[in-house]
Design a protein that fits this description.
CATH architecture of the largest domain: 3-Layer(aba) Sandwich
Strand order of the largest sheet: 10-9-8-13-11-12
Number of helices: 10
CATH topology of the largest domain: Rossmann fold
Shape: globular
Number of domains: 2
Mean pLDDT: 91
Strand content: 15-25%
CATH class of the largest domain: Alpha Beta
Number of strands: 13
Order of helices and strands: EEEEHEHEHEHHEHHEEHEHEHE
Helix content: 25-40%
Distance between the termini: 38 Å
Largest sheet: 6 strands, mixed
């Protein structure tokens, strides 16, 4: 192994897809607002009961997330550094989380203790399977013999090509975490308006349109895909949903109809990111051209 790849559980890739590649995930954490001392780590979505988790939110339970400390990053990466193995970290967007800044603080700690190791920490400006696309690419490039520097530079350039578009079933979670105002949330819920949101060039979540009803929302996501996707036959397209298999299947069918990709990886949103976007969310992730984040 020429270098070690780390990511975090926000990448939403099942460990069954990563274990053979030797990728380690830093676990993000969450807790029930009514029991702040019971902090749980998100470890592997293969064993995550998304149905129960998102149903509990629908019934009124509120989950908050905990900031990952630099020490946690350090503790996960230190064994590789102590063996002199170079480290590439593929992280969640700094535009929506402070976790990437924590990772940079950990990198400084590692550099002080193990100065002969190379450290490259990449801000994907993405989350969920948008981040996961970058992880898959890092694995592919390492297998092709790319150096850690070449892989990092490739990912830095590719970040602007990752398109993230999604819609939500219930706007309360986005409103609670500051993504939308309460007034917009109330109007949307009453009128069955589905906002269309995306990750912009800075990795921040912005609303760019709205439609009425979940079926039209899936057609709108598929339309964005057909308009903006580049070389779909060469890429893994990601779909993450928060306990919404019906709309997810419709979106899969629509994507496969006109521009089928090499693979569609469909997963349930892991609980940390999922607690922010809320039950019913469906998100689509794929690669477009250099200007795709502006569309």
């Amino acid at each position: 192994m020429s270098f070690k790849i780390f990511s975090d559980t926000s990448c939403n890739i099942p460990m069954s897809r990563l274990s053979d590649a030797g990728v380690d995930l830093i676990p993000f954490s969450f807790y029930d607002k009514e029991n702040i001392n019971d902090v749980k780590n998100c470890i592997d979505i293969d064993s995550f009961d998304g149905v129960s988790f998102y149903n509990s939110i629908r019934q009124g339970k509120v989950f908050n997330t905990s900031q990952i400390t630099p020490q946690i990053y350090y503790d996960y990466m230190e064994p590789a550094a102590s063996e002199g193995i170079d480290i590439l970290y593929v992280g969640m967007s700094s535009g929506i989380s402070g976790s990437y800044n924590s990772s940079l603080a950990a990198m400084k700690m590692l550099e002080e203790d193990y100065p002969n190791v190379k450290y490259y920490f990449h801000d994907t400006k993405a989350a969920s399977l948008g981040e996961g696309i970058a992880v898959f690419k890092a694995i592919e490039l390492r297998e092709k013999g790319y150096s850690i520097e070449e892989t990092y530079n490739y990912l830095e350039n590719m970040a602007k090509n990752i398109y993230q578009v999604f819609t939500v079933d219930d706007l309360k979670s986005l409103s609670r975490t500051g993504r939308l105002s309460n007034a917009v949330a109330i109007i949307g819920n009453l009128l069955n308006i589905k906002p269309l949101l995306k990750g912009n060039e800075n990795g921040q979540i912005v609303s760019f349109d709205k439609v009425r009803g979940s079926k039209k929302a899936m057609y709108a996501l598929a339309a964005k895909y057909n308009e903006l996707v580049v070389n779909p036959e060469e890429q893994i397209v990601g779909i993450a949903h928060a306990n919404n298999p019906e709309d997810t299947q419709l979106l899969i069918d629509l994507i496969n109809k006109d521009n089928p990709p090499k693979e569609i990886l469909s997963v349930c949103y892991e609980p940390v990111t999922g607690s922010h976007v809320g039950p019913g969310t469906v998100a689509l992730f794929f690669l477009g051209d250099d200007n795709v984040r502006f569309n």
